[in-house]
Amino acid sequence: MTDTREASEKVVRDFLGSWQGRSLETICSAFADDAVYHNVPVEPIEGIAGIRSIFQSFLDAFCDAKLDIVTLAAEPGRVLVERVDYFTMNDGRKVVLPVAGVFEVNNGKITRFSDYFDLADFERQSGMKL
């Protein structure tokens, strides 16, 4: 499979949009088995099992999510996304988090996903510790 700019962008847009459906299977289907997910303020998570686990904990903590793309730039195999993530926690608290994400795509799957954001701001708003 050729990872064109358009194909790489579609993988990332589909992944970001999939959070509203709240299906762990759909969300994780975007990733290669050996992918790395790195919330840059904390240690990276290597492999799909760890990624599934952290994504499940997110889904368990909030009842709604919308990952809103502000700016997206793509080239074959790499997508940069400026976003604002909106979460509604199960207790009703709202989280509004500016994020910059870097995605590497290979053979139609995300192989590396790095998110850059203010960890203290996220933890203060969400009550979660990453």
TrEMBL record:
<protein>
    <recommendedName>
        <fullName>Limonene-1,2-epoxide hydrolase domain-containing protein</fullName>
    </recommendedName>
</protein>
<dbReference type="Pfam" id="PF07858">
    <property type="entry name" value="LEH"/>
</dbReference>
<dbReference type="InterPro" id="IPR013100">
    <property type="entry name" value="LEH"/>
</dbReference>
<feature type="domain" description="Limonene-1,2-epoxide hydrolase">
    <location>
        <begin position="9"/>
        <end position="122"/>
    </location>
</feature>
<dbReference type="InterPro" id="IPR032710">
    <property type="entry name" value="NTF2-like_dom_sf"/>
</dbReference>
